[in-house]
Design a protein that fits this description.
Helices cover 37% and strands 22% of the residues. It is α/β, with parallel strands linked by helices. The protein has 2 domains: 182 residues, Rossmann fold (3-Layer(aba) Sandwich); 54 residues, no CATH class. A 6-stranded mixed β-sheet has the order 5-6-7-3-8-9, sandwiched between helices. It has a 3-stranded antiparallel β-sheet with strand order 2-1-4, covered by helices on one side. It is globular. Bound molecules: adenosine-5'-triphosphate (ATP). The site of adenosine-5'-triphosphate has 10 residues, from α1. It comes from Citreimonas salinaria. It holds the Pfam family ABC_tran. GO terms for molecular function: ATP binding; ATP hydrolysis activity. InterPro entries: AAA+_ATPase (IPR003593), ABC_transporter-like_ATP-bd (IPR003439), ABC_transporter-like_CS (IPR017871), Metal_Ion_Import_ABC (IPR050153), P-loop_NTPase (IPR027417). Keywords: ATP-binding, Cell membrane, Ion transport, Membrane, Nucleotide-binding, Translocase, Transport, Zinc, Zinc transport.
């Protein structure tokens, strides 16, 4: 199956600072892919480049023709004192019908909030409204950038269940940036670990069942945490973007073998 979005040797820079180097990435229809990595490792920048909001310094991004992407941003700075109903918010920047708005809210688990003021929504409800807005265009690919930041554990778990339902019902692919590693390990088809470049990637199940993984990281959530940490706890000398991760790469290869 051909990819919805693909990158080849993608390099991103801000001024003379390289934040992401030589990234080869692809996501196919229906896949759930999660990007993990420490703060500042380039996760949001990658998402922005994928949706065309950030120009590659080198390499390229290829999108399937006519691809519809729904994007739930990490942060949406809203003036909470500005009176605006959920319904009106859904019609920004493009007007949508009442029926489309109702359907999107229902699918996002926010049915009946249309007439509420945005300022009165809880964090979890607001995330659902953002999801509803992303669903309005019937996306083939849903991109979520730390969509559960600020939600408590049950709130985050409920939100991810919702995402799985949306994928199940609509068949859309899901690409998310997440720090909720237990969710990452259980819900993703593939995990990509970034730190200025791709440290390692693989199927979470295969990775977590591989003897080499167990030997290194143990099992369960603690193992997931170790998967996250071990690539980044080592000493970075010189340019943090240009080092290699021989152990991580060997580990990923063995896990996939
Ligand atoms: N508009 C910008 N101008 C200059 N530098 C930027 C800009 N946006 C991001 N950066 C820098 O690029 C690097 C990667 O940022 P990015 O937001 O992609 O990381 P991240 O992995 O998403 O981090 P976090 O987990 O904190 O959200 C950071 O060092 C950041 O300071």
């Amino acid at each position: 199956m051909s990819a919805l979005i693909e990158t080849h040797d993608l390099t991103l820079r801000f001024g003379d600072r390289t934040v992401l180097r030589d990234v080869d990435f692809a996501i196919r229809p229906g896949e759930i892919v999660t990007v993990v990595g420490p703060n500042g490792s380039g996760k949001s920048s990658l998402m922005r480049a994928l949706i065309g909001g950030l120009k590659p310094a080198a390499g390229r991004v290829t999108r399937a023709r006519g691809l519809r992407v729904g994007y739930v941003p990490q942060k949406l700075v809203l003036d909470r004192t500005l009176p605006m109903t959920v319904r009106r918010f859904l019609s920004l920047p493009r007007r949508v019908t009442d029926e489309a708005a109702r359907e999107a809210l229902a699918r996002a688990g926010a049915a009946g909030t249309g007439q509420q003021q945005l300022a009165t929504l809880s964090g979890g409800q607001f995330q659902r409204v953002l999801l509803a807005r992303a669903l309005l265009d019937r996306p083939q690919l849903l991109i979520l950038d730390e969509a559960t930041a600020g939600l408590d554990q049950p709130g985050a778990a409920a939100f991810y269940r919702l995402i799985e339902d949306v994928r199940h019902d609509t068949g859309c692919a899901v690409l998310m940036v997440s720090h909720d590693l237990h969710v990452v390990m259980s819900a993703s088809d593939r995990v990509i670990c970034l730190n200025g470049h791709v440290c390692c990637e693989g199927t979470p199940q295969v990775v977590s069942e591989a003897p080499v993984y167990r030997a290194l990281f143990g099992e369960g959530t603690r193992g997931a945490l170790a998967l996250y940490r071990h690539h980044h706890d080592h000493h970075h000398h010189g340019d943090a973007q240009s080092h290699d991760h021989p152990q991580a790469e060997r580990h990923a290869e063995q896990a996939e073998a």
